[in-house]
Each structure stands twice: as C-alpha cells, then as structure tokens.
C-alpha cells in the first residue's frame, strides 16, 4: 500500500508542476528530479543490525528505492527474531534475508518485489529481480550481513563520505 501511495504522491506533485522532491514513506522512497544543486538525491540503505548505521549509500533521479527488512517491526524471544515478513511456504518469519532494496520507476511494483525478494533470499531473489526488465537494480542483505547486488547497481552507488 505504501508503494501505491508513493506513486500517487509523485503524480500529484507532478500535476502541481513540482519537478524536484524526495518522498519518504517509511522505507518507500521516491527520488523525483534532483537536489537543489543539480546532483542526484542520496538515499542510505539502513544496516539491518544497526538502527543508526548505513550499509550503503545510493543515488537516484526519478526512481523509487523501496526497502523491506526484519529490522523495523520485530521482537526477540529466547534469542530468536520474529518479524512481520512471513514465508508463505512455512507461515513463519522468512530467514534468508535481513533487508532488501529494489530500485525501479514504479514504487508500487518495487514495494511488492522488495517483500518477495526478502522471502526468496539472495540467490533466488537476485535471479528473480533480473528476470524483470522494469527492475533497475537490487540489494539484498542476508541474515549474516553480507551484501548481494544485481549487476546494474553500480550506476546507483555513491560514496558514504559524501553524505557525512
């Protein structure tokens, strides 16, 4: 639902003649146009195990960057993390990933895919994402903190130092 709401917000801003904006709908980000200095918007991918940490910094123009993860809505009991993204095969929280980010034009589709790829895990998730022509790039962080990316992510990468 947040992806759809994000796409509707982008359409409303465009109708008002607004060309540059950064919309953040809690994990669903849309980088519309550019920053005031003409550079692309910069968006941090949260470290799933450090609430204050950034795992990587991405940049974009006129694109959605949508993240799903086990790090916002969860509780721990006896050392086990229980979160809201369920594996439909087992009915239990998916365990292959800690976080995913999907970059594509449609925030609605990116929202759907980020959750799907989270459940699939890095290997299956990257393969599935790359089968969709509309997907520009994907980041999947596994349960051990390792980063897996699609082939085209490099055009969205930027240096962490630039944001500090």
Can you walk through the features of this model?
This protein is globular. A hairpin with a 3-residue loop joins strand 1 and strand 2 (28-32). The protein is α+β, with helices and mostly antiparallel strands and 164 residues long. The protein is 25% helix and 38% strand.
Q: Rounded to an integer, what's the Rg over CA atoms?
A: 16 Å
Q: Hey, roughly how much beta strand do the residues contain?
A: 35-45%
CATH homologous superfamily assignment of the domain at 44-56 and 63-163? ApbE-like domains
Let me know the largest β-sheet. Answer: 6 strands, antiparallel
User: Cα distance, first to last residue?
Assistant: 32 Å
CATH class category name of the domain at 44-56 and 63-163:
Alpha Beta
- SSE series: HEEEEEEEEHHEEEH
Structural class: alpha+beta
Tell me how many strands there are: 11
* Shape field: globular
Portion of residues in helices? 25-40%
Strand order of the largest sheet: 1-2-5-8-9-10
Figure out the total of helices: 4
> What's the architecture of the domain at 44-56 and 63-163, going by CATH?
Roll
């Amino acid at each position: 639902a947040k992806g759809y709401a994000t796409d509707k917000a982008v359409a409303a801003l465009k109708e008002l003649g607004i060309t540059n904006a950064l919309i953040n709908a809690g994990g669903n980000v849309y980088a519309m146009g550019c920053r005031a200095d003409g550079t692309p918007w910069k968006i941090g991918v949260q470290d799933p195990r450090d609430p204050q940490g950034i795992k990587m910094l991405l940049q974009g123009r006129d694109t959605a960057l949508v993240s799903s993860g086990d790090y916002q809505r969860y509780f721990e009991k006896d050392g086990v993390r229980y979160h809201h993204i369920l594996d439909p095969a087992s009915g239990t929280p998916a365990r292959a990933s800690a976080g995913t980010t999907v970059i594509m034009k449609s925030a609605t589709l990116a929202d759907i895919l980020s959750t799907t790829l989270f459940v699939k895990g890095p290997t299956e998730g990257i393969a599935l994402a790359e089968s969709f022509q509309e997907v520009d790039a994907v980041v999947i962080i596994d349960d051990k903190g390792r980063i897996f990316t699609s082939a085209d992510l490099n055009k969205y990468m930027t240096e962490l130092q630039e944001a500090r």
